[in-house]
Amino acid sequence: MICFTIALRGKASTNHWDDVVRDFNNTLHSIFNQTCDEFHVFVGCNEIPELWEKYDRNRLHFIEVNTPVPKTWQEKCRDRSWKLLNCAKAIRDRFGELSVQGGVFVFPVDADDYVNCHIAAYVKAHPEANGFKSKSGYKWIKNRKIMVITPYYGGSMNIMKMYLDELPEGLPDISLCFDEKTSAELGAKYPIKWFDIEVEGKFAALGRRLDRLPFRSTIYVLGTGENISEKDPKNKRVDKKRIQPVAFLRRINPFDKKLLTARIKREFGILE
Asked: Rounded to an integer, what distance in angstroms lies between the CA atom of residue 127 and that of residue 93?
């Protein structure tokens, strides 16, 4: 069993709620485009958005939380991780028995990305794995005809097998979860709160290496105006003089470009 989890920003924290709802619906359509129906979707949110399609509500679960409106970049990151924690708790409540027997696969997906239609089937065929990760994915600015092949970009990259003690039974008061100390403690205990780029190394340190998927798992969508990663204040400290030649080489390198074909649209459930 694989559970896709999504942390959806609240309306009050967005610049253009209609755009967020559109991107979320595209992501949801992509997930439900799976070739195997043995999956569930858990969405942590402040309010349930308008859905553009009818979905199997036995497999789509909204977990509404009353979080304060995040203002800083760090508060937005904590808001995301708090909602993912609530999703993890809901997974334990529903699939606790499975997590004891053999673990439950959990795939945190950003609310504006697209995922490959073969993920659920591949996970079902390899229940003994500790988890999965793509060797690469695609970066895509919406409405462009060309994508860029990338080894890593955003959050939708790690499929983790979690056991009962890695899924929270209860959560502390929400005011504490936005406290730096409590957030760090929860982050150390529960894999769903680990930084995306740390997951593979931490699983390896536990003796649980992630397997490589034989296909690209994710299309990372850029330029929506609501990407938390693109607003990371650390990005402002990058040495522009040092990075410009690298960016130029990437622009002229024909080997990391990929045409957005009809086949890729079908594979990732892209409607537009």
From this structure: 21
With b for 16 or more beta-carbon neighbours within 10 A and e for fewer, the 129-167 pattern comes to: bbbbbbeebbbbeeeeeebbebeebbbbbbbbbbebebb
Q: How far apart are CA 98 and CA 174, in angstroms?
A: 28
Residues 6+ apart with CB under 8 A from 235: none
The token pair at 259 is: 């045409």
Task: Write the single-letter amino acid at 262.
Answer: A
Mean pLDDT of 68-92: 92
137-141 vs 218-222, strand pairing mode:
parallel
Considering the entire predicted model, what is its pTM?
A: 0.88
Q: CB under 8 Å to 172, separation ≥6 — which residues?
A: 182, 186
CA distance 151 to 169: 34
Query: Is 220 within 8 Å of 156 (Cβ atoms)?
Result: yes
Q: In this structure, what token pair is assigned to residue 196?
A: 């995306």
Give the three-class secondary structure for 14: coil
How far apart are the C-alpha atoms of 231 and 78, rounded to whole Å? 14
pLDDT digits (tens, 9 = 90+) for 155-177: 899 999 999 999 999 987 776 67
Q: In sequence order, what E strands does 17-152 have?
A: 39-45, 60-64, 104-108, 114-115, 131-133, 137-141, 146-150
Token look-up 């990005």 returns 235
Query: Model confidence over 129-157: pLDDT tens digits?
Result: 999 999 999 999 988 999 999 987 778 99
DSSP code of residue 35:
S
